[in-house]
Amino acid sequence: MIMDAENKHIDPVGLLPKYFAGEAEPEERKLVDDWLSADESNRKEFQVFKKLWNMTGSVSGEDGIDLDAEWHRLESFTMPAEKAKTVSLVRIVRIAASVVLISALAFIGFKINSVETEKAPVAALSTIKLPDGTTISLNAGSKIAYQKGFGVTNRNLILKGEAYFEVAEDSSLPFVISSGEASIEVTGTSFNVRAYKDKPEIKITVTEGSVFVYDTRKPGNKTTLHAGETGIFNKAMKTVQKHELINMNDIAWKTKIIDFDNTPLTEVADILENTYHKTFEIDPSVQSCSITVHFDNQDLGDILRVMESTLDLEITAQGKRIIIFGDGC
Questions:
Q1: Concatenated DSSP letters for 130-170?
Q2: Does the residue 2 lie in any domain?
């Protein structure tokens, strides 16, 4: 191979990862091209490494990279027999290590640079404005994730926890929420999704417009929910139960408007826990007690005092724990 004096110490094989990745400088590309034209055996060696790059170098944003599996693939790779020239094992290992390292770095870079995440504080709400104009209210501790380019090529996101969505209308680009077992698809509407990992159900409350709910693995089987309806997706059964009425207490965490209508204390506690982010402990003797009362944007202290006086309860606060007990109802 003929090289100028300045570059004669550079091994073109070492430039191949940059060459295949399209990151080589013009001078580096010329070195590789000159090397290719110098000898037929160089061209055959080039094809070997090109095949190796195609096996290990391309990284998809949807798939992870398993380095162990890639090394197994490298170990099983068979070099073509050559009479004129044999590629040394040292060069194979060197280029293979470079290819796998570049693949791994490319994958890590994709994950870091192409995904946006938003998370609400542990004990406070958070409001997020997405690039497409959609507004999301996140309940405490909840989070969403979506790819960069959201609103241009897709409107897909992942939800963990609970959120109220006010989706900007775009009939050409459906808005799809993945909550694990269930997915929700809309074009523009307002609704609440409660999708906690430790709960057996995913609950969708529609306040405006309509949404489609379906098993994430079976997108062809969709249940339509309209404004004023609630859908409960059973994680175990993979089914959607549709209710033609909604309970506005489902979004009390956002509105701070609570209506109890002969509601048992166990259900009261669930709603207050989700709204005020405290843990309630109810003595068995008063769990069957029920209450009818309306609260509009009142703090938890006021609510507890009303409950205490109305039902003749004793309520104490110990840090984040609220303990309710009494003589029974």
A1: -TTS-EEEEPTT-EEEEETTBTTTBEEEEEEEEEEEEPPP-
A2: no
